[in-house]
Amino acid sequence: MTEEAPPGAGRGPGGISTRRLPVRASDRIQRWGRAILVLFFLLAAPLASATTGRAVHDAETRRAATLSAATRVEARLVSDAGGPTVDARAQSMVRAPVRWTQPDGHVRTAMVSVWAGSPVGTTVPVWITAQGAVTSRGPATPGEAVATAWMAAAVTFVVVTALFTGVWKVFTKLVDSVRCKEWEKEWDEVEAELSEQFRNR
User: Fold this and answer.
1) How far apart are CA 126 and CA 114, in angstroms?
2) What is the distance between the alpha carbons of residues 57 and 145, in angstroms, rounded to a whole number?
3) CA angle 99, 74, 130 (to 5 degrees)
4) 146, 152, 157, 161 alpha-carbon torsion, rounded to 10°
5) Picking from 7-11, 76-80, 150-154, which range would have the lowest pLDDT averaged per residue?
6) For residue 124, which of 139, 111, 133, 142 has the smallest C-alpha distance?
7) Is residue 176 helix, strand or coil?
8) Residue 96 forms beta bridges with which residues?
9) Other beta carbons within 10 Å of 109
10) Tell me, what's the pLDDT at 56?
């Protein structure tokens, strides 16, 4: 279904037609769909980014508070850490066993995250909580917590933008499909009308 200007309307100086093109149902769907999607993006992207950033910051703050009373010890790698050789341009972390001696003389071993490619005997600082949990990642400073939160928020914004772009492309394809069907229907009507005129001559 299309909307057209009334007869005689849309005539400019010199009789030149300024009538607007017909507005089809697919055009209205695209217009309103675009407005809704853009509004949703403008609301969802900042909200999701802010929520993620706040959650990460709170998690880092809680973790720092938990490790504030943890004991820091120097452990050593029991074996070579798997993975590629340590490269300053592209470092990655892997799980590997480390061993250390406690103040009471007991030797403990645990699996912690270390740089890939680290050789056996490498010194690895670890933190032991009051509950006995072991981690090789120390508590984040307030500045590190803020930086991590901003990074998480930025990643979330990129992800939401990518999702919005994907939805927009799918929506556009669906509307174009509907528009093509409308064109085919209108062309069939025109052909039928022309055929009828030729038969009546």
Assistant:
1) 10
2) 6
3) 85
4) 160
5) 7-11
6) 111
7) helix
8) 112
9) 11
10) 94
In the block, residue with structure tokens 């590190």: 144
- Number of CB atoms found within 10 A of residue 165's CB: 11
Residues ≥6 apart with Cβ < 8 Å to 63 = 139, 140
Cβ atoms of 115 and 81 within 8 Å: the answer is yes
Threshold 0.90, pTM exceeds:
no
**pLDDT: which is higher, 84 or 35:** 35
In this structure, are residues 79 and 97 in contact, taking their beta carbons and an 8 Å threshold? Answer: yes
Find, among 74, 80, 73, the residue nearest to 96 by Cα: 80
Burial class from Cβ neighbours inside 10 Å (0-12, 13-18, 19+) for residue 197 reads exposed
Beta-carbon contacts of residue 192 (< 8 Å; ≥ 6 apart): none
Q: Is residue 41 packed enough to be buried (19+ CB in 10 Å), middle (13-18) or exposed (0-12)?
A: middle
Look up residue 90 and give its DSSP letter.
Answer: S
For residue 139, the one-letter residue type is P
Q: By three-state DSSP, how is residue 83 classified? A: coil
Please report, for residues 3, 12, 25, 131, 147, the alpha-carbon distance to residue 18 in angstroms, rounded to integers and kept in the order given. Answer: 15, 6, 22, 79, 56
Measured between alpha carbons, how far is 84 from 96 in angstroms, rounded to an integer? 14
